[in-house]
Amino acid sequence: MHKESDIRLPLILGDKSYKDITDDIIRPIEANPPKTWYILLMISIVIALWGIGCIVYLLGTGVGSWGLNKTVGWAWDITNFVWWVGIGHAGTLISAVLLLFRQKWRFAINRAAEAMTIFAVFMAGLFPLIHMGRLWLGYWVFPLPNQFGSLWVNFNSPLLWDVFAISTYLSVSLVFWYIGLIPDFATIRDRVTKPIYKKVYRVLSFGWTGDAKAWNRFEQVSLVLAGLATPLVFSVHSIVSFDFATSVIPGWHTTIFPPYFVSGAVFSGFAMVQTLMLILRKAYKLEAYLHVKHVEYMNIVIIVTGSIVGVAYITELFVSWYSGVEYESYAFLNRATGPYWWSYWAMMTCNVISPQLFWFKKLRTSLMFSFFMSIIINIGMWFERFVIIVTSLHRDYVPSSWTYFHPTWVDIGVYMGTIGIFFVFYLLFSRYFPVLPIAELKTILKSSGKNYKEGYGKGKGYWDKHSAH
Amino acid sequence: MADKVIFAMYDDDDKLMDGAKHLVSNDVKVSDVYSPMPLHGIDSIIGVEPTRLAITAFMYGITGVMLAIIGIRYMMIVDWPMNIGGKPNFSLKENMLSFVPIFFEFTVLCAAHGMAITYLIRNKTLPGMPPRNPDPRTTDDKFVMEIKTSENTHIKESVLSKLIKDTGFLEIEEKSIL
Question: Does this model's pTM top 0.80?
Fold first, then answer.
């Protein structure tokens, strides 16, 4: 058994055994859902249906029902796309990068974060598709044989790179998530008594047996998938940034974009994980598995990525002046002081100033404050994309085409709708799927469980006294 | 000697590991172990060969990159060279840089999915497959060791049961194979 340093705070609190881990995580699946779950599901379904209605209206009427105009050809649609892709970056990053670094605290958040990733990437993928106007021709983005006319898709185009990057990312994340779920579905299969549940989980668990060779393969596959997914995570958001960076629009064609977008994505992804996990731990009574220490680790990642984002904003500003290019200088001056000054300063406050508060230990170990901050960061990161896209476009080279973007009710409805659809998926996931990785938590119980750590080092009650620090 | 399978159940992973070590040091062949989570170190004790799935991932990856190069070369260079902004596609070498992102994505796509499918087939885990664990508790908190008498014909049955008894199991079950 791998022994861990005595002074490290245990990752699993309380006097837990293997049996307790199974019970704690499967109990909400077996029990009837509480009333609040139904209420939340109903609200999400209503918002989702409203969003779907807006999408249907949009497809029937045309993309003109968005607030776009001749100058601002991209606005909320691509803002929402990049926002959702960014959120979708935490899950695979947590599972893959933290697995490569052997960070055991990932087990408290990886399963739910991966689910979040998959649903978020679904929502992201929706926007380019509906932006095509003719959703049913969406498959034309793939290189298809030539009965559609002797022309192939353009492999030099960052938009096509995006098609490949997003679809690879979505499908690889899905596989990664499901391979981890199989043993846990087997645990549920061998436990539930309702016949319908037994049948469904029997199919979902693919006949998992848990013999030595299967676990041996499981570990190898997880490791190699993590090794493949890590560069994938970085490549996907780099490619999303190429959509802008390879263009000729002042404010877009900056070489700093790939690292800046990737760290922004991780930043917003972790914030969304915090938002969702802090509610989930309360609702499912998972306080023993996800506690202050995990939240603190996440907040540290938020400080690091938030600071990278902050440095990137300031570098951009500096370079726009230092380059001596008038158009470039004007684009940035206009962002900060032009008609969209409010969005620029909302972005600066939410993304640059507020994460720095986490340097205070009191604040980064406060669950309420972390929850509040996670919402602020989610808002700030939406504004970041809005600032980049809309403020760069609304001032054209020809002053006669200068304009201001006003969202219509369809813009707002589609965006809200995706949040609704996301939460419908997420609520169903939290109801019927194990929200923590049962098998993997068992592997760290003996090295990082509170009762075991007290057994080989600190006396009984030590961590109760010291865990609040 | 009748051909039997012995399932010895333990309530702790360390007990099972020590038991397996004890049995193996006495020349007993342990055919398999069923556990609710991966047991680190059990493979070398009971002699499970390391998996070659990582090698398959590499091979699928090579296949992916080759397919991407051949496909993009055919579409963009041979079949319909495009002239975009005066930067025409007339040779793969000169256009290589802008093709790299898709080479990479397609390599990862093939490597990850190829390996995952191989993994599922090799493990016999596919939708609708029947579970083969000897006891439903092995996916919860119990650990089971499987010993086949046909693989241990060199040991007397009484000696074998004595050795297994020494490991301190929780329950034992014997099944005859017909």
Answer: yes
